[in-house]
Design a protein that fits this description.
Number of strands of chain B: 7
Number of helices of chain B: 8
CATH architecture of chain B: 3-Layer(aba) Sandwich
Strand content of chain B: 5-15%
Structural class of chain B: alpha/beta
Helix content of chain B: 40-55%
Structural class of chain A: alpha/beta
Largest sheet of chain B: 5 strands, parallel
CATH superfamily of chain A: P-loop containing nucleotide triphosphate hydrolases
CATH architecture of chain A: 3-Layer(aba) Sandwich
Shape of chain A: globular
Distance between the termini of chain A: 31 Å
Helix content of chain A: 40-55%
Strand order of the largest sheet of chain B: 4-5-3-6-7
CATH superfamily of chain B: P-loop containing nucleotide triphosphate hydrolases
Oligomer: heterodimer
CATH class of chain B: Alpha Beta
Distance between the termini of chain B: 12 Å
Strand order of the largest sheet of chain A: 3-4-2-6-7
Radius of gyration of chain A: 18 Å
Radius of gyration of chain B: 18 Å
CATH topology of chain A: Rossmann fold
CATH class of chain A: Alpha Beta
Number of helices of chain A: 9
Chain lengths: ~240, ~240
Amino acid sequence: MAKEASGGRAYKGKLIVVEGIDGSGKSTQLHLLDKWLRSLGLNVFFTEWNSSDVVKEITSKGKKKALLTPTTFSLLHATDFADRYERNISPLLEAGYFVLADRYIYTALARDVVRGCTSSWVRKVYSFAAAPDTAFYFRVPPDIAMDRILEGRPKLKYYEAGMDLNLSNDEYESYRIFQTRIVEQYESMVKKDRFAVIDGTLDIEEQQNLMRRQVSRLLPPSKGRAPIELSKMQEAGPP
Amino acid sequence: MTQQVAARPLKFYGDGISYLTRLESKGSLIVVEGPDGSGRSSQIDLITSHLEAAGHAVITTGLKRSELIGSGILEAKHKLPLGKKTLALFYAADFADQLEHKIIPALHAGYVVLADRYIYTLMARSSVRGIPRSWSHDLFGFAIKPDLVFYLDVPPEELFHRVFQKYGSLDYYESGADMGLSDDLYESFILYQRGIAKEFRVMEAKYGILRIDGGRGIPEVNAELQKRIDGYLRSLR
């Protein structure tokens, strides 16, 4: 049962989180998990990091003027998260939903600490957020993940590439250094935050089976013996 | 003319701002807190004139929206009212922006920074809305401890008259109208302002807030504030 991180009240619902750097394959996996849980007839809600326009608008404005400090950057993302938390995540957990989060507070912790905020402060800021029932961490060698992302030479956004950290004038080089530092932060959380580590270099189906095995423990008894193989799910899935 | 004041280390309520390299102040941070109608802005104007006449470089700052965040971006995106923590974090972001871009540079440069409200108002507003005090305290761990903090204490009944005389109506949030305290706006205002005043009493000892009787006339209140400020500034030399 999901609990507030501060040890507060318990919810009826379940909170399942995926974390990992861009290109780790976490979103693909959460999407498949979402399909499966829905096919079992469960109430599912899917939420993404930075999905509100508020932060996007402010960060792009701040970028032009190079105005965002690590603390304001952190607090604006916390504002965005709190909005989704108070509006969706918390009430839906209360109502018994399976809430699936593509990135959660650990993303903030990793990024903000790399930018220079202290981890103790960031943890306190986010202490209102429920601790997940399961937090999957997709471990991929940074080079492999970055190759997946950089293959098409995409246009990287200023903050996404960590350009505010002055790591390199080249945005691709900056991105690589930034992502490597993010991975270090994630690795430092694995034990403390009890991440369920998934080897992101495995086949997609293999990873999904591992996730489903883990999540099946959270299912209500009536759904507990549900088929967990990917192939069977597709047969049983809704049209 | 004023003498050059020696640089002192900035003090923070919590972890501070670890990525800053220049962490000293040659100036002073003086905060005036109090509800609308307590006479804050009149006092700040008088103090500014007095200090400038005495040769100090003075800059004023407030809780008004910073350039970064602008007005109404957050509100405009949502039809529903925002949650308590969302608002608390949004105001904290705005405050952080002013702290890093205005207050800290001014302190480095030796200004007397007069703050028309500071984190205490933000914390009091959150607390009366049910947010744990400890969370607000931790949230503002990056905030600088001011050199002096005054709270202009005025009974809510008196505030009501002053606000009505000045503006002809009550402000939505300053009346706690979002909290559903009472259908009657007068009653809601009194209950809300009492709650805020109580929060300031709770914070007084912890944050070294000096309560000033703001129910007196402007000159009397100013005489007391100025005496304390002058005494403090003399102690720096």
